[in-house]
Design brief:
This protein is an alpha/beta fold. The protein has 18 helices and seven strands. Helix 10 packs across helix 14.
Length: about 425
């Protein structure tokens, strides 16, 4: 039987999901053979074995495994924290659960908090009384909510308090279940088992979704950096320029959001702006290399040609018919077209002033100027951080948003920590 279950498990794990090449499915299986007993009894035994398999992830556990594996008995028990100031109540709960679960006990709220801090997510469930010394059950729930423990450690409240207000308050604070005394031991066991099983499924789903999102973000970032590395290679600049712009943009946005809510930027907005910053110079693909890589100062005509990269990049993005309404592309368009605008209207290509310039373009503009100053180029040597800061703040590189100038000064030590420029 175990061999057949393992074949199923391996077949599922090796399955390729269309559109998700890096996704791996897994199953946990529990198997029993039965003769003479009821189907319901066999299913219950298999369900418990399956839950033990889940604790090991992507495994198969059978009754034979439970009795013997390499001559040793498998002991996989979920940990339950019983919190009650009554010794008799704790003993009753421990007696009914001890065969299938590891039990730890707390006699008051403070002990409960200490044990949760000690074991964290290793606690599979808390059985919690309401009326206790030091901290009562509701104070524990408030503490668990403040520290976000309630999201990872389920709580079943067991109490002789049957007031509707108590029950409502308990659920409001996030308990998974409420059991009133006196109770039926079989009912308590099943509700404990079901709650632990439900939370285990939830954790696995969250972990799987989180892994998928991380993989998607990583792939997006790789694609952006590959594209920008190609651009930087053609431009004769260090490929690190794009990485630096991303980091500088992120640091500027983080502090800007801390200092003001004037721009109503969400964390997602900041992430999109930082990512889209990599596209700021894609329009240079349409500029002649003799101008891009000229070692000396550009002539007036050459500079006019160079300025066209803003419009070329914006036009390229505007032609992405299937994606032009996506938020990322809209932000990238703003950055491409307007990252050379200046706060006093003396920038290009449209001569926008002040807050006519989208904040995404304003932030990338500051990042771009700073990195250009402190980096070596074919037409100049690198300036020191101190020289670059002085030039930007004195207006030698054009006028910028005063708020962004304050932010740049505040994060300058952080910039030096996170970005290592060549001396």
């Amino acid at each position: 039987m175990k061999y057949q279950l393992q074949l199923i498990q391996e077949s599922i794990y090796n399955t390729n999901v269309p559109g998700y090449p890096n996704l791996r499915l897994s199953i946990s299986a529990g198997g029993v053979l039965t003769e003479g007993g009821s189907i319901e009894e066999a299913v219950n035994r298999a369900d418990k074995l399956m839950y033990q398999a889940k604790a090991m992830k992507n495994k198969v556990v059978t009754q034979k495994d439970k009795r013997e594996q390499y001559g040793k008995q498998i002991q996989i028990k979920q940990r339950i924290l019983v919190v009650d100031d009554s010794k008799m109540n704790r003993e009753i709960l421990c007696e009914m659960l001890k065969d299938d679960f590891e039990i730890i006990e707390a006699t008051n709220g403070q002990e409960c908090v200490s044990l949760i801090e000690q074991y964290g997510k290793e606690i599979s469930l808390v059985l919690l009384d309401i009326v206790m010394p030091v901290m009562d059950g509701f104070e524990i729930l408030m503490y668990m909510n403040r520290n976000h423990w309630i999201e990872d450690v389920p709580v079943i409240m067991i109490s002789s308090e049957e007031s509707e207000n108590y029950i409502r308050k308990a659920f409001k604070f996030g308990v998974s279940d409420y059991i009133s005394r006196p109770f039926d031991s079989k009912v308590v066991y099943q509700r404990v088992f079901n709650t632990i099983k439900l939370y285990a499924k939830q954790r696995r789903l969250i972990s799987m979704v989180s892994d998928q999102m991380h993989e998607k973000e990583k792939n997006n970032q790789m694609m952006v950096e590959v594209l920008s590395q190609i651009m930087e290679f053609r431009n004769g600049e260090s490929g690190l320029h794009v990485v630096h712009i991303n980091t500088l943009t992120r640091l500027l946005l983080e502090r800007l959001v801390e200092n003001t809510d004037a721009y109503n930027l969400t964390p997602d907005d900041c992430y999109l702006i930082s990512t889209a910053s990599a596209f700021h110079d894609i329009g240079k693909v349409g500029i002649d290399e003799s101008i891009l890589n000229k070692p000396g100062k550009l002539t007036k005509e050459e500079f006019e040609t160079m300025k066209e990269h803003t419009l070329i990049g914006a036009s390229m993005l505007d032609k992405l018919e299937h994606y032009k309404d996506e938020k990322m592309i809209k932000i990238a368009y703003q950055i491409c077209r307007w990252h050379h605008e200046r706060y006093d209207g003396k920038g290009y290509p449209d001569g926008l002033t002040g807050e006519q310039i989208p904040i995404a373009a304003q932030v990338v503009s500051v990042a771009d100027v700073y990195d250009a100053l402190v980096s070596k180029r074919v037409y100049k040597d690198a300036y020191s951080h101190e020289q670059a800061m002085k030039m930007i703040l004195n207006g030698e590189c054009g006028a910028f948003n005063p708020l962004l100038m304050e932010v740049l000064v505040e994060i300058q030590d952080k910039i030096k920590e996170e970005i290592r420029y060549e001396a």
